[in-house]
Amino acid sequence: MLANIMQSIILGLVQGLTEFIPVSSSAHLKAIPFIFNWEEISPSFDVALHIGTLLAICIYFFKDGIKLITAGFSIAKSKFKKEEPTEEVQKDGRLFWYIILATIPAGVLSLVLDKISEKLINGNVSVEIICIAIASIVMGIVLYFVDKKMPSKRTYPDYKLKDVLIIGVSQALAAAFPGVSRSGVTITSSRALEYDRTSSARLSFILSIPMILAAVVVSLKDFSFANPIPFFIGIATSFVVGLIVVSSLMKYLKNGNYKAFAIYRFIFGILLIGVVIAKSFIL
Length: 283
Known about the structure:
By secondary structure, the protein is an all-alpha fold. The chain has one domain. 79% of the residues lie in helices and 0% in strands. It is built from twelve helices and no strands. It is globular and about 70 Å long.
């Protein structure tokens, strides 16, 4: 039990630390048990960890979410009442409906690509870790150059429909290629479209809410409370750490950039390749 609790705390810390920064939490949740020869985490515990960070992001962006939902229904209502909402309400309202429209194809494509990815990897953990390593390195390089080269001309919530569709659907790449990172690919896509760093992160996180919620709902059929204490510890840890991380990241991005995360991805990928090679010689 003690070992399970310690692992729950560590994995909760990992989930909270990596869910919102562009380094792929799923990659780390696969890599940590592989590196330390732990059992692979169960689908139930994976859901539990994501519930923790989902709660964190919902709380942090609660006001933004209420504002978007209210504006979305306000502009829908105005069509019937022939009223003219304020420019701010129109921007927020349009973005709300853009997010809804982008989430549907992103969700469907994610499910399809996830099934294809599972069949290709076919349960081979070493192959999966190598895929994670390659994706981490490639996306790290792409993130670095996109963030460095692209200007910050556009801001939240001035997203166009085609922009939100591109950014939203790009999330499906994280399902197809383990290690890509959902936040990493959406932030990179947003920066490629010349949105500033804070705006890119904000839209990425708001887009993640319906996607993570849908993934949690779909996975609830696998949920089990056979050993509830580690589950609740994992949820609590990922929630608290996730809330601290997202708050700190949004403050950092006011003047910072994504260079450190891109470098980390490269180093993390190289480290994983080294671990796989070392384990193959040891075994």
